[in-house]
Amino acid sequence: MGLATGAFALYAHTIMPGLKETDDRTFVAAFQSIDRAIINPWFMSSAFIGALLLTLAAVLTNLGRDPLPWVAAALVLYLVAVVTTLAVNVPLNDAIKAAGDPDRIGDLAAVRERFHASRWAAWNLVRTLASAGAFVCLTWALVVYGRTS
Description:
Layout: H1 2-20, H2 24-38, H3 41-61, H4 68-98, H5 108-115, H6 117-148
Pfam family, one: Anthrone_oxy
Organism: Solirubrobacter ginsenosidimutans
Protein name: DUF1772 domain-containing protein
């Protein structure tokens, strides 16, 4: 969960503010490149999907135990992050990648505008806060577990 939260937060406080200051060609090319790079087995298995599966496993292994409400809350919060990613961020990512090679795009400003960077960033903040909340819930679940063990 910490890895997923960190990845989302990195976009919020570094990547998107940095790209905001660039020209259209740099924005489109850089975002396309970053999005291609993040779709890799390490990120997908250890952070994005891994956080979901491990939190689900934590729910199942804590059935009937005191930490369950906190672990379940973490699962719900992280599901918000996953759904947000799949419903908002991924379609915007796919659209900017579908625009093609920046060297062959006639109107880079239009591609950038259709990407809706402010919308992408706003929803990224939602998934950042949701996953951070999930992380806090999982941390507190460990405290509760320690008190009852």
